[in-house]
Amino acid sequence: MIYKTVGKTGIKVSGLCLGTLSFGEESEDKIYFEMFSKCRELGINFFDTANTYANGRSEAVLGKCVASCRDEVVLATKLANPTSDNVNDRGLSRRNIMLAVEESLRKLKTDRIDFYFCHKLDPFTDVEETLKALDDLQRQGKILYPAVSNWAAWQIVKALGISERKGLARFECIQPMYNLVKRQAETEILPMALEEKVGVTTYGPLAGGLLTGKYAAGEKKKGRLSESEMYKKRYSNGRNYTIAEKFARYAESKGFHPVTLAVAWVMSHPAVTAPIIGGRNFEQLRPSLAALDVEMTEEWRDEISSFSIQPASPTDRSEEL
User: Which single residue of 91, 144, 153, 219 could bond 192 by disulfide (Cβ 3.0 to 4.6 Å)?
Assistant: First the structure.
């Protein structure tokens, strides 16, 4: 197993993180215990969830899984998305942060959360208010490090600046979307992470299943890409399907499952600490786990990158870069 240090924290995590979005979706928890146990056997020590996954059940299932090995694993969970119809059970207000962390700790059956992610930006709460609340949680020992997902680079840097000026706990890990058809993170988010020495756990390496090779333009097959309106909107552009089809044929010509190569490509970016992988059972996880054995060179990465569109430069003066 490959282990990488998360930013400046000194915490070492496995080169892949198991995402538990599916944990709790089915009534049979033994499916998830098997996934967890087999990942632990392979050396994976990093697990990601959120207080809204499976309507809140994911945290509870993961809590049962880690009960016997809590000090051997690194846990990440998130808050901000609505957890009830109550207008205040959402966002990044001090109120919601203080209440949500207690609920997550209870479900996870732990006394601390290693990385506590702000799931998305809250336009109604001042960033400093959020950072002060997270700093209090760190001082109380309820979280070890604040983290952030789905913020723009400038928003993250603004928060880092406030934390430095005010002496508050800073975001030590970020979680952006990143895959072969969604490469916007390459423009500013990933370079920012390298510069600021912030850990990166990316999500969506398979583009909602698009890069698995099982979807062709116009085909309807069972999976998140066909069942979820969010995923449909995110990847509905026909160009994405064209990229995915070319990539799948390429992967197979090289003797790799498309999933394996898609995850390995994400892993190969120098800013990425650990891509988040997931599945509904262990068999679905196997091709993703095989990415650990892929030695991707810079030239090979460039060849795969050529299937999709290079993101635009962050400055118009690209001829001088």
Answer: 153
Kindly give, in sequence order, each residue whose CB lies less than 8 Å from that of residue 108, ignoring residues fewer than 6 positions away: 49, 59, 60, 62, 63, 66, 75, 77
Strands (E) in the chain, as ranges, are: 3-5, 12-14, 17-19, 46-48, 74-79, 113-118, 143-149, 173-175, 199-200, 276-277
d(C-alpha 48, C-alpha 175), whole Å: 10
Of residues 53, 145, 178, 235, which has the active-site annotation? 53
**Residue 187 forms part of a structural domain:** no
Q: Say if residues 225 and 33 touch (Cβ distance below 8 Å).
A: no
pTM over the 0.90 mark: yes
53 part of the active site: yes
Domain that holds residue 46: 3-175
- Residues 111, 105: contact at Cβ < 8 Å? yes
* Helices 282-289 and 30-41, axial angle in degrees (round to 10): 20
**Residue 253 domain-assigned (yes or no):** no
pLDDT tens figures, 178-199: 999 999 999 999 999 999 999 9
Tally of domains within the chain? 1
CATH number assigned to the domain comprising residue 73: 3.20.20.100
The tokens for 245 are 């089809």
